[in-house]
Amino acid sequence: MRRVIRLLTFLGLLCAFTTVAADAVVTRLENLVSELPEGSVYSIQVRDPIKGKVLFEQGAHLNLIPASTLKVLTATLAYDALGQEFRYSTHIASENKVTGKGVVNGAVMLSFSGDPSLKREHLNDLVVQLKENKIDTIAGDLWLDGAVYSGYDRAGGVSWDDLNICFAAPAAAMILDRNCFYGWLKPGKKEGDPAIMEYDRPEWNLEVDNRVVTQKSPDEERCTQKVRPSAEYEYELQGCIAPESRPLRMAFSVSNVERAVERFMYGLLEQHDISLKGRIIAGRPELNMPYTIAEHHSQPLPELLRPVLEDSDNLYSDSILKTVGRQTSGKAGSYETGIESARTLLGNKGVGFGSSRLVDGSGLSRYNFISAATLVDILMLGWKQWGEESPWLNQRKRKEQWFKTGYMSGVRSMAGYVFPDNGRPLVFAVILNGLMPPLPATDKEMRAFRQDIRAFHRSFLKVLGDSGKTLDISAK
């Protein structure tokens, strides 16, 4: 009897100690949150994925702008819906068999699948396959088929002044080299001369209407360049570059994807001495194309998810979301079908979306609103289904943690897993909105403000990393 009493006494003291220690951890987190800038809004939750117990939360169900932390939804959805063996396929098909004379009679169709990893060299490989099959003439039209996707190439809520930048490249079914092209802007020989634009790959036939002038800025400030729409070119580039300026690196998203692919294909066929008797037409013909005459496959899905989570690639994320929509709904892929699939498939497995609003798979849109509780639900689902065998945890660089960050003007967020010494993870999401220093602010003040936010994130992760046993997540 005395042994029982001593055991109960010990367990009571242990429970009391654990409660006090856990309260200390919660207090540390509360103190961190209380030091966030005035005017900021936050949604935070920490949960034990085994017990499902909420260990800390503040504003956990507030729907805020997540930025790129939304990519954890896209990755989890894609891995669940498509599977690790999924690959994209890009192929050329014909209406008729190839004749013995190397002629394809009738129409030929180049079908795109929304493969975000597709490069121009892969199209070159497809044309090489035609040559290897002794094809030297296409007697009909060449159709460029992008019907697997429908709707806009960009989601609503993407900032208009980001549209020419590579991280906001259009997520169309036709994707070549991430729908981006590069060059160097150099000053002319003397003041008043036009600036010189030299492209990395001039054979891609992608150009801007360069109207930049070599001159010192008339208002005594640094010369800048502005990008405007253009009907004939990808963009019109205006402004000035100082005579003594070093070459400026320029990166542009493709503004007209169909036109870009059409121009490239004309040049590619000519390069390989394949005669095209018809036209190149963007669209899907009302014809049966039963004969596949060239084909390319992407890497499997786990490799395609690396750019999503490691490089935070928006194009990969949005294209993969659209692909899930197409594969699961039977309709053309779009932002709408992708989000509908996410709500249905993940919702049926326990993810509570509540009144969240989602419009893309990358987090690039400012129309996205989601809570920390929903992001934690998604991460909990990932842990429940695959544990450390998911591609993102299996390939993580740091054993003690894995998380996805999100950055946007006024937004800093992170969501992921922290693995304390006991090896069991803590699942967390932190979404911070409204992050602005008192204005006007100097460059030095802005840098200090950003450093303070980064310090908050580091401290938050450290508290979680130190608190595994304290928060009683070791017992099953």
Describe this structure in words.
This protein has 476 residues and is an alpha/beta fold. It folds into 3 domains: 21-85 and 301-466, Beta-lactamase (3-Layer(aba) Sandwich), CATH 3.40.710; 89-151 and 257-297, D-Ala-D-Ala carboxypeptidase C, peptidase S13 (D-tyrosyl-trna(Tyr) Deacylase, Chain: A, 3-Layer(bba) Sandwich); 177-253, no CATH class. The protein is built from 10 helices and 20 strands. The relative contact order is 0.19. Mean pLDDT is 92; it is low at 4-20. InterPro entries: Beta-lactam/transpept-like, Peptidase_S13. One of its GO terms (molecular function) is serine-type D-Ala-D-Ala carboxypeptidase activity. Residues 1-21 form the signal peptide.
Helix content: 25-40%
What's the alpha carbon Rg, rounded to whole Å? Answer: 27 Å
Count of helical regions: 10
Give the name of the CATH superfamily of the largest domain: DD-peptidase/beta-lactamase superfamily
Q: Can you count the beta strands?
A: 20
Q: What is the 3D shape?
A: flat
Give the averaged pLDDT, no decimals. Answer: 92
CATH topology of the largest domain: Beta-lactamase
Give the spatial strand order of the biggest sheet: 2-1-20-19-18
